[in-house]
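One such shown below:
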Amino acid sequence: MGVWELRTRSFFESQQGVAAAEPSLTQDGARAAGKGQGSAFRKWATLSVVVVVAAGVFSYVGAWYLERPLALAEAALARGDPRRAVELVGAYLEKDPENSRALRLKARLLVMMNQPAEAIRLFEKVGVYSADEIESMARAYMMQEQWSAALPLLLRAAELQPRNPDVWYELTACRVRLGWLQDALQSAERFVEVSPQKARGYLFIASIQNDLKNRSASLEAFARVLEHDPQASSLQIPPEEFFLEYGRTLLVQGEIERARQMFERSLAARPTASGWAELGRSHIEVGNDQEAEKAWRHALELDNFHVEARQGLAELALQRHEPQQALEHLQPLLGLPLLRSSTAYLVQRAYAMMGDEAQAEQWRKRTEELRERERLINLVERVALEQPHSYWARVMRAYQFAQQGNWNQAKLLLATVKPETSDEPFVRQLAAGFGAARKLAFLGSVARAARVGGSNVFRW
């Protein structure tokens, strides 16, 4: 083997060694390169996440800082400082007049400032989301006596805040106004459960049970009121009204002595014509005519047109065979818009006692007309009491609201009976224009429905 050959083979052998070694070097380099690229990607991804999170944090902090006055306003409202809340919200709206959170706060403040119409306009513009906002909007509707509009809001607020006594109180008041007494009784009982003001809740229950003619249950609730508030000084009504209503219920139940004590407590709190008149009734129940007459005369000193007092004095005059004196007592009542059949009957008796047959007959007919009218009214009230969600109950309530000038509530309630499809002319007239309807026409409609419906009169 020559030197050249040796050198050449040595060269090729060395090149083969290099070639054999190259694949190993290439794989390691690829792995090293891959590691470098993965590390760079992870660094880039991490940096991106950090940037996004930082941006979110800065955005949140920026928004929090910008809306911090609104948070302070909400805190002021929560602690009972509406003046400070007004200042903060007003200043914020000068810079950002369309901010929905600020507008909702403004609406809540408007409710507190007795501006319900503007509050409702703002709530309708930006919506309500929190329980406080929902309750506030409901309260605005209640301030405008739009009970049907307030009711669903209060029901939602009760779901969100089941232990909020204000919600249950307002829900009870709303249901009472709509005539839904059984529903009102349930919410009143719930109010008693969650509220520290137990006396107010029991007063609600007593009043509702009275309207439902559950006198015994009403008396139990009245007694519970005094257990929690012996002087009746923290109630929704003045003490004289509370003791007056308590006494009336006792009188109906035949507990005359206890009733008299309540009437005396009512008069001690503040003398009223009704207090004196009811005290007179309690005296007459035990045959104390002299004390009854004194009480009724005291009533007329405070209210010259007090019906019960004048009728009581007229009855005493007739018992003494003094018909002319009886007529003098009754005369001021004869010009009242809603003359009672009981008054007309006393006039009839007075003329009969005087021997004036023509006048006696005239007043007999008038008495019968008034009794028929009162019978129909009682029928309507019975429908409303036993089936408050029925067709005629809703029509009746709509008419009553219209008579009171509460047109919005009347229309809301009447819309639930679809007056455009009604066969009753009164209902269509009521929907077309409340001024075209007449109360007697309404009562006649109810009477016809009762006769046609028979035992199913309350099915609607």
In short: The CA atoms of residues 252 and 404 lie 29 Å apart. Residues 387-456 form one domain. The first helix runs from residue 3 to 66. Residues 1-27, 49-65, 449-460 have pLDDT under 50 and may be disordered.
